[in-house]
């Protein structure tokens, strides 16, 4: 498959290169922000301190850097500005239900404006990004190469957020924790979903260590059959839990994002990596043991759902699902025709240490992929002589 056929098949891959993002995932975060105002500028929810977990190659960190440090306009702010421009042109009585008006707001270049036209940087921004893989440097981002599932990462993170951090005087200080963590998928769905959920629990544990009360947490999930249990476990520690599917995430993929708002720290409890499920366990037990509950925990750990009486039973709760990104945004599953003179751009940031590099080196050392190669041939000749 050539570069331009991928550009045709994946509009967000092409756009990411055109707009200088390191990965197409940048659009997922921007579209989630459009819906949930993650990078709010308004007090008291003003967002200035963020942790980006599983951050390589760094497109989410780029979004953070450009929105918070440089003050560029993307996501919710860009949408609000577009609406203001439209209202100024049409008057306050505009009818957004009309298709023409909606198209004018979402599609016309004058309404879209330039992301960098008015810069609105914030003071005292602190952004920490963590990944197992090395990541090329990014302006204003503190980078850690660490495993989010390992307990030794916790003090590294706390110190990176605040160099004067005092373990005995722990205060929660981060406004937002985001995690786009994904394991190397094996194609065995159950295994992939399990490993993904372990990354999510580690991300949640780290988030609970650093978030301020009222803070937000966004993390990638795979919508498997026990996903309902995950929602039930997030609900006790956050005021609101939503499932978001950005338009840039392919409909055919089981990927979605939990968006949790209004963190409520648990009194007298410090979460630790490895035992993170313990605190949330009562929720599971409640679900399983209650006779009147319309949910039951099956032996395999999944929750069985019944849909009657949802209004009257407070334990019955299904996370609301929201698609985000405006309707005129590119469709991640569509194939687009490119102009005749279209030139495919190179990637913004080639991988620094991709796992396949080692495999290629091994293969070269072994003499190549196909048949007898020079080195093997030489070895055989040496054996013969
Ligand atoms: C989909 S990529 C993240 C893309 C990133 N959000 C961006 O916008 O560029 C998933 C990342 O999760 C990282 N990851 C997987 N398991 C991890 C772990 N245990 N600790 C830290 N990072 C991990 C991988 O190294 C990979 O870079």
Structural class: alpha/beta
- Rounded average pLDDT: 79
Domains (count) = 2
Percent of residues in beta strands: 15-25%
Q: Regarding CATH, which class of the largest domain?
A: Alpha Beta
CATH architecture of the largest domain: 3-Layer(aba) Sandwich
- The ordered H/E elements are HHHEHHHHEEHEHEHEEHEEEHH
Helix content: 25-40%
- The CATH homology group name of the largest domain: Vaccinia Virus protein VP39
**Ligands in the structure?**
S-adenosylmethionine
How many H/I helices?
Answer: 13
Main sheet attributes: strand count, strand direction, barrel closure:
8 strands, mixed
Q: Which radius of gyration do the C-alpha atoms yield?
A: 24 Å
CATH fold label of the largest domain: Rossmann fold
Task: Report how far the terminal alpha carbons are from each other.
Answer: 44 Å
Strand order of the largest sheet: 3-2-1-4-5-7-6-10
Q: Choose one word for the global shape.
A: globular
Low-confidence stretches: 281-293, 312-316
> How many beta strands in the DSSP annotation?
10
């Amino acid at each position: 498959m050539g570069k331009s056929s991928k550009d045709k098949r994946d509009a967000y891959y092409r756009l990411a290169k055109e707009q200088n993002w390191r990965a197409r995932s940048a659009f997922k975060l921007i579209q989630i922000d459009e819906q949930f105002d993650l990078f709010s500028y308004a007090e008291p929810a003003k967002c200035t301190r963020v942790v980006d977990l599983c951050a390589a190659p760094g497109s989410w960190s780029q979004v953070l850097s450009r929105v918070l440090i440089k003050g560029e306009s993307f996501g919710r702010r860009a949408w609000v500005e577009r609406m203001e421009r439209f209202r100024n042109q049409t008057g306050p009585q505009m009818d957004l239900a009309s298709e023409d008006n909606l198209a004018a707001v979402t599609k016309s270049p004058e309404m879209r404006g330039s992301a960098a036209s008015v810069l609105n940087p914030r003071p005292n921004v602190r952004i920490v990004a963590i990944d197992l893989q090395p990541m090329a440097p990014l302006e204003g981002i503190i980078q850690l190469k660490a495993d989010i599932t390992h307990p030794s990462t916790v003090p590294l993170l706390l110190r990176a957020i605040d160099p004067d951090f005092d373990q005995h005087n722990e205060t929660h200080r981060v406004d937002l924790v985001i995690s786009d963590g994904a394991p190397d998928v094996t194609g065995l769905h159950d295994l992939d979903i399990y490993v993904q959920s372990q990354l999510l629990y580690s991300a949640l544990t780290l988030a609970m260590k650093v978030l301020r009360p009222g803070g937000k947490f966004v993390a990638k999930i795979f919508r498997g059959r026990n996903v309902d249990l995950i929602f039930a476990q997030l609900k006790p520690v956050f005021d609101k839990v939503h499932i978001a599917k950005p338009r840039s995430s392919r409909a055919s993929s089981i990927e979605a994002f939990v968006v949790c708002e209004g963190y409520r720290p648990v009194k007298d409890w410090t979460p630790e990596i490895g035992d993170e499920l313990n605190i949330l366990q009562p929720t599971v037990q409640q679900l399983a043991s209650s006779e009147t509950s319309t949910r039951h925990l099956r032996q395999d750990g999944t929750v069985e759902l019944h849909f009657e009486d949802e209004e009257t039973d407070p334990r019955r709760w299904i996370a609301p699902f929201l698609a985000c990104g405006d309707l005129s945004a590119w469709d991640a599953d569509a194939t687009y025709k490119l102009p005749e003179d279209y030139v495919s751009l190179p990637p913004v940031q080639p991988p620094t240490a991709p796992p396949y590099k080692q495999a290629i080196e091994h293969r070269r050392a072994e003499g190549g992929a196909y048949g007898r190669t020079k080195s093997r041939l030489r070895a055989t000749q040496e054996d013969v002589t």
